[in-house]
Design a protein that fits this description.
Blueprint (H helix, E strand, L loop, with lengths): L4 E4 L7 H10 L9 E5 L1 H10 L6 E4 L5 H4 L4 E5 L12 H19 L5 E4 L4 H6 L7 H8 L8 E5 L4 E4 L9 H4 L2 H19 L5 E5 L14 H15 L3 E6 L7 H4 L4 E4 L2 H12 L4 E5 L5 E4 L16 H17 L3
Parallel strand pairs: 1-2, 1-5, 2-4, 3-4, 5-12, 7-10, 8-9, 8-10
Antiparallel strand pairs: 6-7, 6-11, 11-12
C-alpha cells in the first residue's frame, strides 16, 4: 500500500492517544499498514510515556512523509497542542478532537490517505462546542455528501459481523421506526459493501426477527410478518442472498454463525450483545455506504482508566488492520 491510514486522535483526555502509541509499537508483530495520527505530537508523546512507552514521535506536515519515518517513529500530523491530562475532558480537548476528525476526514476524501480510523470521542463534550451530530458516523457521512440514513453501522470481529437497523434510540421506539424500506435499504448497502470491501462475492445475510421466535406467526407481534418478511422478499428479488426473519435467540451459536456472513438485526442490543460477548477485544465499528473507508475501535473514551496503562490495544489494532485490508481491496491489490 502506498497511501497511509489516517487515525484521528479522539478526545485527548481519553484512551485514544495512548492506544495509538501502543498500536505503533505492535506494527511489526501485527503486520500493520503505515498509519499516522492526526492531533498533537507532544500530547501523543506524553500519553505514550505515561503508558510506559518511550517511543520516538515524528511530526509530519503531510501524509507523503509517513512512509519515510513509520518504521522508526510514530508519525503525527501536528494540528494543535494541549497539555495531556488523562481522565479530565475539557472544551479545548473537544476542539482538538473535532479538528482532528475534520482534518483526517478531509485527507482521506482528497485521496492523500487511504482510510480513516476515528479515535473515541465524548459526544457530550463535543456538543458543548457546537457539534450537533449524534456521533462521528453522521459527521463523516455528511462530509462525504451521504445522507445519514445511507450510512450503515456494522460491527465486525473474528467471530461475527452484525448490522443494527436502528441504533441509538429507546427500545420502545424501535417498532415505530422500523419499515420494510429501511431494512431493505440498509441490508442492500451492507451486501454491496461486503462484496466491495471484504471480497465476499455472494454475501449471506441472516435477518433477525424483532419479536421472540420471530413473532411466531403473529402470536407475539405482527412486525416480523408485516415489515421484516417483505423486506427479505424484496432483497431476494434483487438477487441478494438474504433469509429470515429468524428467531433471534438461535442465531448466534457457533453452528448458526457458519450459515451467514452478517446478521441484520433490528435494534442496537440485539446486535451488540452477541458481538461484544464473542469479540469484545477485537470488535471494529465500520461505516458502510461511504465513498471512503472508515473504521473505529468498538469502545469509548474510557476516561476512568485513561493514563493508567490498562486500556486494551486490541480494538485499535483490529480497526487499523481492517481499514488497511479494505483499502487494499478497493485499490484492487
Amino acid at each position: 500500500m502506498t497511501l497511509p491510514l489516517a487515525l484521528s486522535i479522539g478526545d485527548p483526555a481519553g484512551i485514544g492517544p495512548e492506544l495509538a502509541a501502543a498500536a505503533w509499537c505492535l506494527r511489526a508483530a501485527e503486520s500493520l499498514p503505515h498509519f499516522f495520527v492526526v492531533g498533537s505530537a507532544r500530547l501523543v508523546e506524553a500519553a505514550a510515556r505515561r503508558r510506559g512507552l518511550n517511543i520516538p514521535i515524528c511530526a509530519v506536515k503531510s501524509p507523503d512523509e509517513v512512509a519515510g519515518c513509520f518504521a522508526d517513529a510514530l508519525p503525527v500530523l501536528d494540528i494543535g497542542d494541549l497539555d495531556y491530562t488523562p481522565g479530565e475532558p475539557c472544551d479545548a480537548g473537544a476542539t482538538l478532537a473535532l479538528d482532528a476528525l475534520s482534518s483526517a476526514t478531509g485527507l482521506v476524501r482528497s485521496g492523500a490517505a487511504s482510510a480513516l480510523i476515528t479515535g473515541p470521542i465524548a459526544k457530550s463534550r463535543l456538543a458543548r462546542i457546537g457539534f450537533d451530530y449524534p456521533g462521528q458516523t453522521e459527521y463523516v457521512a455528511q462530509a462525504c455528501g451521504i445522507s445519514p440514513e445511507n450510512a450503515v453501522m456494522m460491527l465486525a470481529g473474528p467471530s461475527l459481523r452484525v448490522v443494527p437497523i436502528t441504533v441509538h434510540v429507546a427500545l420502545r421506539a424501535v417498532p415505530d421506526l422500523l419499515s420494510t424500506e429501511l431494512i431493505r435499504n440498509r441490508a442492500a448497502i451492507t451486501a454491496a459493501a461486503l462484496t466491495r470491501d471484504y471480497g465476499i462475492a455472494n454475501p449471506r445475510l441472516a435477518v433477525a426477527g424483532l419479536n421472540p421466535h420471530a413473532g411466531e406467526d403473529g402470536r407475539m407481534g405482527r412486525e416480523d410478518a408485516d415489515i421484516v418478511a417483505p423486506a427479505v422478499a424484496l432483497l431476494r428479488e434483487a438477487g441478494i442472498n438474504a433469509f429470515g426473519p429468524l428467531p433471534p435467540d438461535t442465531m448466534f451459536h457457533a453452528e448458526a454463525r457458519k450459515t451467514y456472513d452478517v446478521a441484520i438485526c433490528m435494534y442496537h442490543d440485539q446486535a451488540l450483545i452477541p458481538m461484544k460477548a464473542l469479540d469484545f477485544d477485537e470488535g471494529v465499528n465500520v461505516t458502510l455506504g461511504l465513498p471512503i473507508i472508515r473504521t473505529s475501535p468498538d469502545h469509548g473514551t474510557a476516561f476512568a482508566i485513561a493514563g493508567t496503562g490498562t486500556a486494551r490495544v486490541g480494538p485499535t489494532v483490529a480497526a487499523l488492520r481492517m481499514a488497511g485490508e479494505c483499502a487494499l481491496r478497493r485499490a484492487g491489490l
